[in-house]
Amino acid sequence: xxxxxxxxxxxxxxxxxxxxxxxxxxxxxxxxxxxxxxxxxxxxxxxxxxxxxxxxxxxxxxxxxxxxxxxxxxxxxxxxxxxxxxxxxxxxxxxxxxxxxxxxxxxxxxxxxxxxxx
Length: 118
Hints:
Elements: H1 3-8, H2 12-31, E1 41-42, E2 49-58, E3 64-70, E4 73-77, E5 90-97, E6 109-117
């Protein structure tokens, strides 16, 4: 495949960005009827997103860990460190999209690049 065709393909990180943007737009539309706050998004580097989230344990298929960005946006980390596997823990996380097979199928799969407790 030549370079022009390759550039037209969407990377997992761009898909993640599109999903987060779409979710933010849904929240903006919903804000007209109730006072939902759009989660803060920041671009940490190309193809990454820095965001505040809440770690969640979901009792699906033997247990799944998720990062809840808002009531409408849930991400599935493929490499959440053990010390951050605490239900309801608030974190600041830098992510990139990743294509991965998931048993849980709770949202877009992401790779944690950096994480800290809030």
